[in-house]
Amino acid sequence: MKTYLAKKGEITPKWHVVDASGQVLGRLSVRIANILRGRHRPTYTPNQDTGDGVIVINASKVLLTGRKEEGKDYMFFTGWVGNEKHRSAAQMREQRPEFLIEHAVKGMLQKNKLASCQLKRLKVYAGPTHKNEAQKPEPLSL
């Protein structure tokens, strides 16, 4: 019996909608990263893009456990001397709540060109509505 390896054009991605309200950030990010990579399919091939697209709604209502709301620190560097910016998770939730999920999922993907293709299929919205009805997404239960 031979091992099946998916080819480039064989898999057509489906789209899933995930409601992030009341979900823990790390556990939600693992599930989203596995769907983006295609680990939920029996035809999963590590070196091919066999994953699906994910639409995340209510990103502003995601939960952080423990003291991560104040203690977790995101660092940004502009490249100029002395321009290193630090923001807590609470500040990022106020300014860009989508960033929390995007950053967590990006850290759980591979560090190669394939991950950038997979991240293009991740759409995160802070509120309960999204503008991706044309993709006919299916609700995903976590």
Describe the structure.
The chain has a four-stranded parallel β-sheet with strand order 5-2-1-6, with helices on one face. It has a domain at 15-65 and 97-129: Ribosomal protein L13 (Ribosomal Protein L13p, Chain: A), CATH 3.90.1180. Helices cover 30% and strands 18% of the residues. The longest helix is centred in the N-terminal third of the chain and has 13 residues, at 25-37. It has 142 residues and is an alpha/beta fold.
- The top-level CATH class of one domain is Alpha Beta
CATH superfamily of one domain: Ribosomal protein L13
- Stretches where pLDDT is under 50 for at least 5 consecutive residues are none
What does the largest sheet look like? 4 strands, parallel
CATH architecture term of one domain: Alpha-Beta Complex
Q: Proportion of β residues? A: 15-25%
Structural class: alpha/beta
Assembly category: single chain
If you consult CATH, what is the topology of one domain? Ribosomal Protein L13p, Chain: A
Number of strands: 6
Gap from first CA to last CA: 34 Å
Structural shape: globular
User: Over all CA atoms, what is the radius of gyration?
Assistant: 17 Å
How many DSSP H or I helices? 5
Strand order across the biggest sheet? 5-2-1-6
Order of helices and strands: EHEHEEHHHEE
Helix content: 25-40%
Mean pLDDT: 94
What's the SSE blueprint?
Blueprint: E1 15-19, H1 25-37, E2 53-57, H2 68-71, E3 73-77, E4 84-88, H3 89-95, H4 97-108, H5 113-119, E5 122-124, E6 138-139
Parallel strand pairs: 1-2, 1-6, 2-5
Antiparallel strand pairs: 3-4
Helix pairs in contact: 1-4, 3-4
